[in-house]
Amino acid sequence: MTDTYDVIVIGAGPAGYVGAIRCAQLGMSVAVIDEYKQKDGAPALGGTCLNVGCIPSKALLDSSEHFHRVHSELAGHGIKVEGASLDVPQMIKRKDKVVSDLTGGIKQLFKANNIEWLQGHGKLLADREVEFTPHKGKARKLSAGNVMLATGSRPIEIGAAPLDGDRIVDSAGAQDFREVPKRLAVIGAGVIGLEMGSVWNRLGSKVVLLEAQDTFLSPVDQQVARESRKLFEKQGLEIKLGCRVTEARKGKTISVHYEDEDGKQTLQVDKVIVSVGRRPHTDGLASEDANLLTDERGFVHVDDYCETNIPGVYAVGDVVRGPMLAHKGSEEGVMVAERIAGHAGHVNYETIPWVIYTDPEIAWVGRTEGQLKAAGIPHRSGTFSFAATGRAQAIDRKDGIVKVLAHAETDRILGVHMVGPQASELIAEATLAMEYEASAEDLARTIHAHPTLSEAVHEAALAVGKRAIHKAN
Fold first, then answer.
1. Domains in the chain, start-ordered, CATH in brackets?
2. Residues comprising the binding site for FAD?
3. Interval 461-473: pLDDT, tens
4. Is-catalytic flag, 450?
5. Of the residues 66, 450, 458, 470, which is catalytic?
6. SS3 readout for the chain
C-alpha cells in the first residue's frame, strides 16, 4: 500500500466511485476511502444509493407492483391467479441480493482499474493530505496531487419522531420491514416518502402521508403534480398537506400528533417512516487547518467545476449545491476527473432529469411552467394524455400526461414534464432534445414508432403548435 496517489477520493457512492473509475481510465493512481458498512458490519462500495437508497427501493417497488397486478389487474387480462400469497422476507431477500450483486460489481470494477479501496474514515488535512483511519487499526497520513470529496448525504432526523430502528424508521429502515404494517404514517410526501409509501400501500398497508408544505410536490410542474396526486389518492394513498408533526408517542400503537389548518390532530399507526429530506454528510470531513469552506447547512462551497476554495481539492454529489441525484453526482465525478487530466469536462445543470418511481412514474427535465412565469419568459405549452395512445391502452397503462414547454419566440424546448407509464425511460428523449437545444418543432417532426408510449411525447410536442393529431386542439 502506497502513501501517495494522484487522486484520493473520499466516499464510494455514485459520485465517488464513478469519478475514481474515470480518473483511473485517464491513467492516474487512485485510492478510494469509504466507511460504509452493511447491516452485518461488512464494508461495501456504492454508498447510500446502492446499499439503502436508489437500488433497493426500486427492487421493492418492482416486487410490490407484481403483487398488486396479480391481485388487482391480471383478471382483466383473462389471467386468474388463485391462492397467491405474500412472502415479505423473500421479497427483502431478493432486494438484498440485487444490492449485493451490484456492490460486488463495483468491487470488480475497482480491481480491473487498479483502484485501491481503503475501508475506513477519510479526513481532509492541510496541503492535500488525507488522514485515513481504518475500521481496525491506527490512523495514518496519505498525500495526493488532487482530492475529491464525495461523502454523500444522510437522512434528516426530527425531534418530534426520534428513530428507534424498529417502529419509527428512516427510508433505509422502511426497506427492511419483515411484515406489512396495517397502518403506516409517512412523515414527508416528497420523492422518498411517495416511493416508500407506494411500496407498502400496494402490499396492503393503510398509508397516510403527512407533508409540512402546503403545496404537493413543489419542485414538480403543478399541472403534473395535481394529476399525480389525483392518481395516488385513487390508489388509496392519503395525502395530507400543511401538517406539522409535533410528537410520535409509542404505546401499543404509535400516536402521531400533528397540527394542520383544522387544529391539533392525532393518527394511530403501527409504523412510522420519517422522510423529510437529506443533509450533506460532511461532519468530520475536514480538519480546521484544512480551511475547507462550507455553509451553515454543511454544503461544501465549489465553483462551476466543483473545485473548492482549496486548489486541487474538489467536492461532488450530495455535498455540493444542486439536486441530490445519483446521476448528477456521477457526472460531476466524471467532470472533475477530466479536468484534473487537463480535458474540458463540464456538466449541463439545465438538463438534469428527475424521476419519482411511483406507479405511474413522474419525470421531468428543465423548467416548470411556474418557473417560466416567475421569470417572465414567454412560452407555449402542449399536453397529451397517455390514454389517447394505442400502446398505453393495449398494456392497460392509461393514466397520466406529457407536457412540453417551449419558448414562444424561438420554439426552443425549455422543459418537459410527465406522469405516466415508463416516464423514467421516456424522459431521456426530452433530455437529449434539450441537450442539443432542439425546438418543439424538431421533436414534432421526429418520427416515433407506432404503437409506443413515446408517441405521447411526440403528440405533446405537436400540441405546442396546436397540431396534435389524436387530440382536439
1. 4-155+279-347 (3.50.50.60), 168-276 (3.50.50.60), 351-464 (3.30.390.30)
2. 58, 122, 151-153, 318, 324-327
3. 999 999 999 998 7
4. yes
5. 450
6. CCCEEEEEEECCCHHHHHHHHHHHHCCCCEEEEECCECCCCCECCCHHHHHHCHHHHHHHHHHHHHHHHHHHCHHHHCCCCCCCCCCHHHHHHHHHHHHHHHHHHHHHHHHHCCCEEEEEEEEECHHHEEEEEECCCCCEEEEEEEEEECCCEEECCCCCCCCCCCCEECCCHHHCCCCCCCEEEEECCCHHHHHHHHHHHHCCCEEEEECCCCCCCCCCCHHHHHHHHHHHHHHCCEEECCCEEEEEEECCCEEEEEEECCEEEEEEECEEEECCCEEECCCCCECHHHCCCECCCCCECCCCCCECCCCCEEECHHHCCCCCCHHHHHHHHHHHHHHHCCCCCCCCHHHCCEEECCCCEEEEEECCHHHHHHCCCCEEEEEEEHHHCHHHHHCCCCCCEEEEEEECCCCEEEEEEEEECCHHHHHHHHHHHHHCCCEHHHHHCCCCCCCCCCHHHHHHHHHHCCCCCCCCC
